[in-house]
Amino acid sequence: MSERKYKIPDYLMNENLTPEQEAIIKRELEGKQVHIISPSPLDILPGIYDYHDTSVLNNQFIAALPAANRMQTIEDLLERDKQREKDGFPRRIRIGKIVKPSKDKKDRIVVVPTTTEPKFVHDNSITEEDEASTGGSGEGEEGEVIGERQVHPEEDGEGQGAGEGSAGEHDVSSDAFDLGKVLTEKFALPNLKAKGKKRSFTKYTYELTDRNRESGQLLDKKETIRSIIKTNILLGNIVGEDEIDPSELVLDPKDKTYRILSKEKDFETQAVVFFIRDYSGSMHGKPTEVIATQHLFIYSWLMYQYKKNVETRFILHDQVAKEVPDFYTYHNSQVAGGTSIYPSYQMVNDIVHEEQLAKDNNIYVFHGTDGDDWNRDGEQAIMEIKKMLLFVNRFGITVAKNAWSNANKTTVETYIDNSKLLRQYPKLVRLDSMSSESADEARIIEGIRRLIGE
Amino acid sequence: MYLVDQHLKAIMEECKARARDAGLNFGEETLEYIVTNRDLIELSPKLMIPTMYDYWVHDVEVLKGQGRYKVYPTNPYETVINSRPAISFYNDNNPDWLNIMIFYHVLAHIDFFQNNTYFEKTWDDDFVGQALADKRMIVNLRSEHGRWVDYVIEFSRSINNLTGYYQELAKSNLPSERIVSDKIEFYFGTFLQDIKKLPSHEIFEEIEKYNKMNAENEDADGNAFFYEVQKKYPEFNAVHKRQKEKEAKPHTSLMEFIRDNSSFLKQEDNAWMKSIMDIVRYTSLYFDPQIRTKILNEGWASYWHDQLFRIDDRITGHEVDYAKTNAGVTSLSRIGLNPYAIGLRLLQHIEELTDKGKLDYNFQKIDDIELRNAYDKHTGGGKRAIFDIRSKFSDYTLINTFVSQDFIDKYDLFVVGMRRNEERGTVEYYVKSRKVEDYKKMLIDSLYHPPKVEIDKDKTDDSNLYLTHRFEGKQLVKDYIPDTMIGIEYLWGGQVQLETTEIIRKRPESEDAEQEFEHKRVLYTIKDRKITKKDM
Predict the structure, then answer these.
(1) Which of B365, B348, B355 is nearest to B304 (CA)?
(2) What gap in Å lies between CA A62 and CA A50, rounded to an integer?
(3) Where in chain A is the domain with CATH 3.40.50.410?
(4) Which candidate among A281, B241, B335, B482 keeps its CA 20 to 30 Å from the CA of A150?
(5) A120 vs B338: CB contact, 8 Å cut-off?
(6) Distance between CA A340 and CA A25 in Å, rounded?
(7) pLDDT tens, residue by residue, A215-272
(8) Which residue would you say has higher pLDDT here, A146 or A38?
(9) Cβ A122–B41 below 8 Å, yes or no?
(10) Cβ contacts (< 8 Å) between B425 and chain A: which residues?
(11) Which candidate, B288, B110, B51, B338, places its Cα nearest to that of A55?
(12) Any idea where the domains of chain B sit in the sequence?
């Protein structure tokens, strides 16, 4: 990532900033923060206990493990999980980590059920050592680099030891298909309106439109008579304008024309979903993790549920907004800069306007931020939101609060509240705020529900 | 799943004879099964124990396709299980030569299971039979108590890493008759050394004095001796008494403590829960030695499949195939830790050290590298030494004792560091250190080590269970704490508290400042399934 330096903008210098605010701004500009959303590098390498005879000696075993043959179906397990809640215990079946973003735009999403058995165990991710380490052998001086790996490798969920990419391709199919249900049963896009029709790939209707000779569900009399006449003209039974004697006509079985049931692709409404993510300096650490995870969930679910009928657009912003082409870039980009929210809203409005998206599409906008905005009155942002409300079906803001702003309302919350938009348009605007430190997967999913709930 | 055919069984029996000739020692009977992928899917979540009780988490694992947890190591499943007779599993389309190699590997594992002292507690029973009985019991309980059985399994499993494996092991190792009395041992071992901190020559003088008196008066209890002691240290008897009282409260693991003291479990209606706790605890204890000897066990098996197969005439024509397979199993990774490779190298290293007489003070005194390399007293005994290692050592003691600078230099080992390269957007692996201290620390850090969570008996009563986590440089996984405590609260039937330490990453003062850390002691309290946390 190239380094970007910003100056504190003039409009901020003119205001009387409290030392605290100044400190936050400075930190954001100068910090050398890293937005960590990838797992620890150690997780990629097999540890001592990932090696075992079954895989090492007979390695043909493990490679071929299909996820079939289950003792309980996923439905049973989900049912059990629901029961847990009634019994007063937390649910335990979760949506597995599902990163399979790829640059070539092939939507590879892995949704797997997973569960953990909670225990008191040591947390290896936080130590006072500066970095993770493992063993190695061979040549090389101390300090010499002997290998490298992309920060965001393709992950295979729970890899079975053998290094990177061993589990092969998982597409939205087979087991993932079952488990997409886990997410899907929970959500549906709200306020979906019948706008702009597009051929569906998933929905079909059955109509008696196709014709078939000799057999079928319904005799098409008109067509059959037409066919009989044609045949008889050819045979010379019907000549010129003479009176026709029906009893003279020959009836070829092939003339009988029937209507048969046919499968037709139905039309579906379509939607465009905008994802906006704040990737400024203050998003360092947990907030980025929360937002990236939440958007990954939403994205996976949309891809699973609505497939080709949902178009997705990705916008990143710090002080300026930029559109990125795919989820991979969206999910993995990082930068350290200041925060200004309205340019991203403006960009959504511009795109929608220029491409005339609102005419044929339902439009959804999801914005993830830590609630920090240098434009503290939010005047421009509110203005852009108001424009957006003219066409949007749902606008959802997630505020993943930083540790230091936990107790207080963040800038964004404050100006959204003051604007009274939430009360005026409860069906259109939603805001969910959580503490990013304590937000676990369940909370993130709950957040999605709040954003898209009816 | 079916038994191997006569042809393969004959090959196995031949392997057994040769392995016995080489000195391996294992039970007469073994069972070999051919398993299909389908069998394996069912077996792997159950850690290869065919008769293991059913549990829904296993099913999720199966659904997930590959049943391993990443956050903490689970017990490794093996091609061979430590049952009586030992059972091993094979693919149905292996060529004979490969099966011979695997047979030797398996026989060495069986030898290890049956001779390594860490497995002592597993020697009396056949676990497969035990597990079957347990499974039936759980099925019966399920028909009576329904899903609550699964909750109790779940909550018991949530503390099944706090079973007191070493305490259990220690009990069996105490000699039946102490050679010297308590008091004498305490006087010389603890009182003079740790409390009075006498220099060693004075302690030796004391021992001398005692031996003399003992020889003269046949006073094994040291009555006369302690009469003298009393004069010199009037407080001795009192100190000894206090010490004895302390020891009278034996250490109990969390699992045992809850089982024996929970007011909830004491209710007659809930007595069945204790049986489940015992099943879960016993199962966990059964796997404990396996996970604590992973490196040594795999090293031992690799050592023997290589030794035995290379001199086996049935290798003829498959030397290259074997070399390739063996290299795949035992080559040292460029980056990463392969327990087979490390274990094998350590055993070979120890064998060589012993053969050359290097396990000797005279050798250790030598600094000169040339002299060290050339040192060879032709003492022999290397084989015996590694047999001793296999009987008495675990991964920890093996690494701690024998990973030396010589070992690291010999095999070109090093610690790999990982750091981010922001410019290239990559994680770099680099040679971080070739020093023995660092390498040893890295190895030991990667060994299985459950946290030490103890019961503070002073703060515990019927209504409150007070646990303290002894901080060893790592905090507990925070996400798991509430859910684990819910389980403990359920089994305990009252409030539960956990005292633990968290590592706080301080916000750096400036860009170049070193990352600083802070330790904070916190107290979690759970009551009526509501969890709260406060700083201490």
Answers:
(1) B348
(2) 12
(3) 186-196+270-452
(4) A281
(5) no
(6) 12
(7) 888 888 888 888 888 888 888 888 777 777 778 788 888 888 888 887 776 666 678 8
(8) A146
(9) no
(10) 1, 150-151
(11) B338
(12) 182-248, 331-445, 452-535
Query: What are A49's two structure tokens?
Result: 């206990």
**A211: β partners:** A259
Specify the pLDDT at position B75: 33
**Per-residue pLDDT at B521 exceeds 70:** yes
Q: Which two tokens stand for residue B145?
A: 């108590």
- Rounded to whole angstroms, the Cα distance separating B196 from A9 reads 70
CB contact under 8 A, B416 and A58: no
Q: What is the pLDDT of residue B173?
A: 60
Inter-chain residue contact B329 with A141, CB threshold 8 Å: no
Strand order in the sheet with A257-269: A197-213, A257-269, A218-219
Kind and range of the H or E run holding B87: strand B86-90
**Long-range contacts, A403-409 (Cβ 8 Å, 24+):** A403/A286, A403/A435, A403/A436, A403/A437, A404/A24, A405/A370, A405/A371, A405/A372, A406/A435, A406/A437
For residues B454 and B250, is the Cβ–Cβ distance under 8 A?
A: no
Best to test chain A binding among B55, B60, B515 (most A CBs inside 10 Å): B60
Q: Kindly state the DSSP code that residue A211 receives in the 8-state scheme.
A: E
How far apart are alpha carbons A111 and A92 in whole angstroms? 16
* Selection from A409, A405, A416 nearest residue A377 by Cα: A416
Cβ–Cβ under 8 Å, residues A266 and A15: no
| Cβ contact, residue pair A66, B65, below 8 Å | yes
Percent of chain A scored above 90 by pLDDT? 4
| Cα distances (Å, whole numbers) of residue B159 to A266, A330, B69, B152, B531 | 54, 41, 16, 11, 18
B31 SS3 class: strand
Between B169 and A150, residue with greater pLDDT = B169
CA within 13 Å, CB half, A328: 15
- Supply A143's token pair: 């300090």
* B82 backbone φψ class: left, alpha, beta (φ>0; ψ -120 to 50): beta
Bridge partners (DSSP) listed for residue A202: none
Architecture in CATH for domain A186-196+270-452: 3-Layer(aba) Sandwich (3.40)
> Running DSSP on this structure, what letter comes out for residue B187?
I
**Is A136 within 8 Å of B42 when comparing Cβ atoms?**
no
B239 and B194 Cβ atoms separated by less than 8 Å: no
Chain B hits for A148, CB-CB cut-off 8 Å, are 421, 424, 426-429
Question: b/e map of A360-393 (b: 16 or more CB within 10 Å)?
Answer: ebbbbbbbbbbbbbbbeebebbbebbebbeebbb
Answer yes or no: is the ipTM higher than 0.85.
Answer: no
Residue in A closest to B414 by C-alpha: A136
Q: What is the distance between the alpha carbons of residues B212 and B413, in angstroms, rounded to a whole number?
A: 53
Distances in Å between the alpha carbon of A427 and those of A190, A195, B78, B353? 9, 18, 57, 78
Residue of B nearest to A45 (CA): B336
Q: Over the stretch B140-157, which tens digit does the pLDDT of each residue have?
A: 999 999 899 999 999 999
From B424's Cα to the closest Cα of chain A, the distance in A is 7
CA dihedral (B348, B354, B356, B362) in degrees, to 10, reads: 130
Q: How many Cβ pairs within 8 Å bridge chains A and B?
A: 321
Sheet arrangement for strand A310-317: A321-324, A310-317, A271-278, A362-369, A394-401, A429-435
- Inspect the interface and report whether the beta carbons of B79 and A58 lie closer than 8 Å: yes
Residue reference for tokens 């010999």: B410
Q: Tell me which residue of B344, B340, B350, B338 sits closest to B446, measured CA to CA.
A: B338
Q: Which is nearest to A310 in space by CA: A240, A369, A357, A265? A: A357
Q: Do B71 and A116 form a contact (C-beta atoms < 8 A)?
A: yes
Helix (H) or strand (E) run with residue A56 in it: helix A53-56
